[in-house]
């Protein structure tokens, strides 16, 4: 089942983290493995700027059907892939 077809209740924190890493890798023209390794070495911070983040969020919404309240997005919820995954899983439940 592709992410687009997956039911909303299957989006766990770890599934969101994997999808976000995939979307970021695609956006940056890297493999997931390369990006994941680089993020682990550098402390896993978000590798894109805020404008690129909105592109990623739009694709995330399209693939998952999850609606993340933009007004609730804060610097700390976007500081890393993991922080975003935690926030998105909590907000979508």
Description:
The structure is a single chain. α1 (13-28) packs across α2 (32-41) and α1 crosses α3. This protein has 4 helices and no strands. It has one domain (8-92). It has 93 residues and is an all-alpha fold. The protein is 57% helix and 0% strand. The longest helix is centred in the first third of the chain and has 16 residues, at 13-28. The protein is globular, with a radius of gyration of 12 Å.
Sum this structure up briefly.
The protein is an all-alpha fold. It has helices spanning 13-28, 32-41, 50-64, 81-92. The protein has one domain.
Q: How is the secondary structure organized here?
A:
Elements: H1 13-28, H2 32-41, H3 50-64, H4 81-92
Helix pairs in contact: 1-2, 1-3, 1-4
Overall spatial form: globular
Characterize the largest beta sheet: strand count, sense, and whether it forms a barrel: none
Give the end-to-end Cα distance, rounded to a whole number of Å. 21 Å
Q: Write the H/E string, N to C.
A: HHHH
Feature tags:
single chain; 93 residues; mainly alpha; 4 helices; 0% strand
């Amino acid at each position: 089942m592709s992410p687009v077809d997956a039911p909303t209740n299957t989006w766990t924190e770890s599934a969101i983290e994997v999808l976000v890493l995939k979307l970021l890798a695609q956006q940056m023209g890297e493999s997931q493995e390369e990006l994941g390794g680089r993020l682990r070495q550098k402390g896993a911070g978000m590798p894109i700027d805020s404008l690129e983040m909105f592109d990623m969020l739009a694709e995330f919404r399209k693939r998952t059907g999850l609606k993340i309240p933009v007004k609730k997005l804060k610097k700390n919820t976007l500081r890393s892939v993991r922080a975003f995954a935690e926030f998105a899983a909590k907000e979508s439940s």
